[in-house]
Design a protein that fits this description.
4 helices, two-stranded parallel sheet, 2 strands, mainly alpha
Length: 98
């Protein structure tokens, strides 16, 4: 079976990596009009690639109620561990984000 993701944004890139990692026999393809995947994500946080807020700093973000609901379903710890498992290293910065 083949899976095609349209758009190489953070969600599709992470989803495609996890899909392939958990199902090595699947064919997974990510298509995007840009040459570099996740280019916009690398520009967030003044070029520091803002991946997540520190849990106690959720109110500093545009939609804190959304983040509260998200962290109820998937903990920040699990999210950061998943990123680490696929080779994305994170670091907590002074501004309260990873």
């Amino acid at each position: 079976m083949e899976y095609i993701f349209i758009g190489a944004g953070p969600s599709n890139c992470i989803a495609s990596i996890l899909l392939k990692k958990n199902n090595p026999n699947l064919d997974v393809l990510v298509l995007d009009k840009n040459i570099e995947p996740c280019k916009k994500m690398r520009m967030t946080g003044n070029g520091r690639c803002n991946l997540a807020p520190k849990e106690d700093n959720i109110e500093a973000y545009n939609y804190p109620s959304f983040l509260n609901e998200l962290f109820k379903q998937v903990s920040l710890k699990l999210y950061l561990e998943t990123l680490s498992d696929i080779g994305v290293s994170t670091k907590l910065l002074k501004g309260g984000y990873y």
